[in-house]
Fold this protein.
Amino acid sequence: MIDLDNCIDQRTRTAVHEAAHVVVAVLLYERIEYVTIKPDERNLGHVRSRPFLITDRDVWRCLLSTCAGNTAEERLGNDVDAEFENRYYVEGEEYTDAGRINRFLSMLSIDPTPHESLLCEAENRVRKLFRNPAVWRAVEHLATKLLERETLDEEKASEIIMTALRRSVWERNRFRKSEEMLAVPEFGQILAEQLFSVRMMLEAHAARCNSI
């Protein structure tokens, strides 16, 4: 098992990143063909998926699994790639996480107003998922096997993940838990939450001013 508590090299970091994509995809019933950490001219590793982008729910699923790589790297205590610091403002880079996220957000809403809130909600759901010990164990196990084999097909990756999830809430209630994650946020709800946060900040500021 890889030791994620100590300083890790780029190859291990890539394995964790790609494993995270696959774990979220499998848990949310997104089909993949394979995952690899064998570098090519464009990437240090990648997941070949087979998404069906018909409904908003399908797009939201892909957004969640795409967010998973960098969200997993946050748990390593490392800074995410500089490319991702630009969030989703990357045009035409379909082979990068940021490029795919830009595409999925545009599919969810032509109006860019809710894009940042949608992305934050997706990242927060994935962070919550990774706080589950069994799910994070699945990421670790899959990353370890990737370091040994470099490339895994869907069948082998799913086997590793489901073995790591044995006797966990996600094994017992996978369908119900996935349904909770796949509930697409309502744009009105997102904007209402933003306005509520702004109002609370203004009220707190006013209270501080009045106390002076």
